[in-house]
Write a structure and sequence with these properties.
The protein is built from 13 helices and 20 strands. The chain has helices at residues 36-45, 68-77, 94-103, 159-171, 208-222, 251-256, 261-271, 284-289, 296-306, 359-377, 398-409, 450-459, 466-485, and strands at 19-20, 27-30, 57-61, 83-86, 106-108, 114-115, 126-129, 135-137, 150-153, 189-190, 202-205, 224-228, 231-243, 314-316, 332-340, 343-354, 380-393, 421-427, 430-437, 440-447. The strands form five sheets. Strands 11, 12, 13, 14, 15, 16 and 17 form a seven-stranded mixed β-sheet that branches. Helix 1 (36-45) links the parallel strand 2 (27-30) and strand 3. It is globular.
């Protein structure tokens, strides 16, 4: 007979994404990035009881990283969950965040992120899980729990790992004696977004990491709030990022962005592999190298060898026969290779993109693809262009986005304009503007007032850099004043 003090599992967040086994169970299974049905099959094969009336497991759910603060609140509201089993494939540091939170705790984090007040609570402040880069509010900390859950982490997702998880589950006391439910609301992060053409953003930089920071900055400042099936997002559309010198950056640089260089190396190896792991629905490597019945990369190599200016070197990863209906379908949908000026350039299109977690790793994967083809045809690698039809930030990670935004805003102001530079002089009562690139005169513009020259420069696309445009405006106005006052004009 069921104890009247037993608590039924009732999620406060993401109920539709969780798989409940026995609502009166006492264990939660965290599947990380692996499919829940895959993990359940592994556990079932290991002899784990998954019966709705007798299983020790109450619920299974993914943990990609962003949802950690919501997981904590579900646990607070369900104190009968006395243990967590981490069993799944890791592609971020979400398992580490969970472990460090309960084992090491949190620490104050200096940031100007503001949280909206929550009723009957102190003003939320930002904290960081010790030993990680995960930033969250301080309304839920380890001391919020009457009793910390036991945590078991399997080494992988193989049958041997499932057997160890099964052994741990047998050791957990199945008695559900209730406890005191606590509900603590997730505070809203207060962020302002500024107007722009959400489909007109272009970023050009030399290195992957700086381009990534510029991208996060643009999203944080200009992204629009939208609602998709997965929830709220901050989105820009058709963003184009050009990376002129895509090379593997120093370890310190990558770690400074919150990533592990070894993960990037593993990702590069995986994206060149045609093998498909049994617990995932698709992989880019599989789509590129074996899914369509032949190796698309090697086919591109042959095209570029036979016709150096070939423009058929295009790979589509999208399968119209299946991907419209599949819940999980490729985000990377096309690759275009172009040999020009003795270098191999690569353009990639993503239909959807996670800016914080996936974009930089994806670029490193593209670098591996580009390098593979370039070495096969005997040329150097050139630029990589990444087009994202829909790129977004998850509001749950706005603290990290804000930190990147703030850091990017302190960067030195770029003065070089890819469109060239301008030499401004005066002759009698005219202002003379000469447009140069590498000491080559591209054009000359004359006028008696800055407004007329501004129109000429704009129509001929002489200036692209905003800082450069403001500087030119100041110099034109200074030249006008010097002519009126009879003084010599010297360009700053």
């Amino acid at each position: 007979m069921l104890d009247v003090s037993a608590l039924r599992f009732e999620p406060k967040y993401f109920a539709e994404k969780l798989s409940i086994v026995n609502p009166f169970g006492v264990v939660g299974v965290v599947t990380l990035w692996s499919r829940i049905d895959f993990v359940m099959e592994r556990l079932r094969n290991a002899g784990v009881d998954l019966d709705a009336g007798t299983s020790r497991i109450a619920v299974l759910g993914n943990l990609y990283g962003e949802g950690f603060k919501y997981l904590l609140r579900n646990l607070l509201y369900n104190p009968q969950i006395r243990a967590l089993v981490i069993f799944g494939r890791e592609r971020s540091n979400s398992a580490e965040v969970l472990d460090h939170f309960f084992r090491l705790g949190v620490e104050p984090h200096e940031t100007d992120v503001e949280y909206a007040p929550v009723e009957d609570r102190d003003q939320p402040k930002a904290v960081r899980v010790i030993g990680t880069d995960y930033v969250m509010d301080d309304l839920v900390v380890p001391d919020s729990f009457e009793k910390l859950p036991l945590i078991f982490r399997a080494a992988g997702v193989e049958d041997t790992d499932a057997a160890k998880a099964a052994e741990f589950l047998e050791s957990v006391n199945p008695d559900n004696t209730g406890g005191r439910r606590r509900f603590i609301e997730v505070p809203e992060v207060k962020v302002k977004h500024f107007p722009s053409n959400v489909r007109g953003h272009t970023i050009i930089d030399n290195s992957p990491s700086v381009a990534w920071k510029a991208l996060v900055h643009r999203l944080f400042r200009f992204g629009r709030n939208v609602r998709i099936r997965k929830g709220e997002r901050i989105e820009l559309q058709n963003v184009k990022v050009v990376i002129e010198q895509p090379v593997f950056e120093p370890e310190q640089t990558i770690r400074g962005c919150g990533f592990d260089p070894e993960d990037f190396v593993s990702y590069q190896e995986a994206i060149l592999s045609g093998e498909l792991q049994p617990d995932i629905d698709y992989s880019y490597g599989n789509r590129i190298r074996s899914y369509f019945g032949f190796d698309c990369l090697d086919a591109v190599v042959e095209l570029l060898r036979d016709g150096p200016d070939d423009r058929r070197s295009y790979i589509s990863l999208w399968d119209d026969t299946t991907d419209f209906e599949e819940e999980s379908a490729p985000c990377l949908v096309s690759l275009f290779f172009r040999k020009q000026d003795g270098m191999l350039h690569l353009s990639a299109t993503y239909r959807v993109h996670n800016a914080l977690k996936a974009w930089l790793e994806n670029v490193y994967g593209l670098m591996a693809i580009q390098r593979y083809v370039a070495e096969k045809i005997g040329v150097n690698t050139g630029a990589i262009t990444v087009c994202s039809n829909s790129i977004s930030l998850d509001p749950m990670y706005l603290e990290k986005a804000k930190a990147i935004h703030d850091e990017y805003c302190t960067r030195p102001i770029p003065r070089k304009d890819p469109y060239g530079y301008l030499r401004i002089t005066t002759e009698a009562d005219e202002i003379v503007v000469q447009h140069y690139s590498k000491s080559i005169l591209l054009g000359e513009y004359r006028g008696k007032n800055p407004a007329g020259l501004q129109t000429q420069l704009f129509k001929n696309h002489v200036v692209s850099n905003i800082n450069h445009a403001i500087y030119v405006g100041r110099q034109l106005e200074k030249a006008r004043q010097c002519i009126e006052e009879g003084r010599e004009f010297v360009q700053e």
